[in-house]
Amino acid sequence: MPTKRRFMQLDVFSNQPLQGNPLAVVIDGDGLCDDTMRAFARWTNLSETTFLLPPTSPQADYRVRIFTPRQELPFAGHPSVGSAYAAIEAGLVPPGKHALIQECAAGLLPIRVDGDGAGRSIHVQAPPAHVHRVEDDVRALLGRALQVVLEEAQLRLIDNGPRWLICDLRDAAHVRGLTPDLPAIAGLCRNLRAVGVSVFGAQQALDAAMAVRAFCPADDIPEDPVTGSANAAIMAFLTERGAHRYGARYRASQGREMQRDGYVDVARDPASGAITIGGECVIAIRGELEL
Question: How far is CA 282 from the centre of its chain?
Fold first, then answer.
């Protein structure tokens, strides 16, 4: 017999409905099998769907599993931010608690909660990033797919749970004007076991220091609206490069080209090197599922 389960759909990295990145959250995910989770994630057809579960670690406040329409991810940024927001709203964590521990496949991740109610923002510590140089042929292939000439220093493969090809296009105008070859990017990502390609560039604007876009066609997501793990990977890229033009704390703009304007607050702790990404959320749907 079907079981009723609480459900929310949120817009993450925005305080405005219909902006940011949508996320589906099944609050009562306990008892669902892997196949059902995968099928439901395909059915929502969002970039990610999460399932909240009782933690297996006594240190954690809750556990989350994260699915794209194609695969399960060990970590993703906007699902972590949105799942924490949903867990608070659903009463899975004590009210007023401002330091949480999220259990996911990537491990136990600290989460900071700033504020309460509608003005609440969630900041999650990303898993440690591993930075890899890429071969010249990969750089050439990606350059053709993006229709730009890439230098060696502009591209790295970053693994912070998912694997991202991170590309510094230096200027926001280049980022916002891209019309990439998505089939070529999909093939490249499959070969490298990467979830997608994310590009960034500096912008001269009051609302954000950086423009970001993320393309994930291998996961049937041509462009992801606002991407936490990619923004964390960009900070890891900048740290590895010793690039200080954005500083240890900045705000990134993403999603504008999709009419899903969102903002990600990115920070790196100078002492520990830990990278956090965060932002606001707004709930668009509350209801029940019968699964």
Answer: 16
Share of the chain above pLDDT 70, in %: 99
Burial class (CB in 10 A: 0-12, 13-18, 19+), 243: exposed
Question: Are 81 and 24 in contact, with CB atoms under 8 Å apart?
Answer: no
**Dmax (CA) of the chain:** 58
Find, among 99, 93, 132, 92, the residue nearest to 113 by Cα.
Answer: 99
- Residue 280 structure tokens: 């606001």
Condensed to tens digits (0 to 9), the pLDDT of residues 173-224 reads 999 999 999 999 999 999 999 999 999 999 988 899 999 999 999 988 999 9
Asked if the model's pLDDT at residue 6 lies above 90, the reply is yes
Mean pLDDT for the stretch of residues 230-240: 97
Total residue count of the chain as it appears in this document = 291
Inform me whether the pLDDT recorded for 84 exceeds 70: yes
Q: How far apart are CA 258 and CA 245, in angstroms?
A: 27
Is 288 marked active-site? Answer: no
Q: How far is residue 24's CA from residue 46's CA, in Å, rounded to a whole number?
A: 7
Q: Find out whether 142 and 155 touch, Cβ atoms under 8 Å.
A: yes
Of the listed 48, 89, 223, 280, which one is catalytic?
Answer: 48
For residues 94-98, average pLDDT:
87
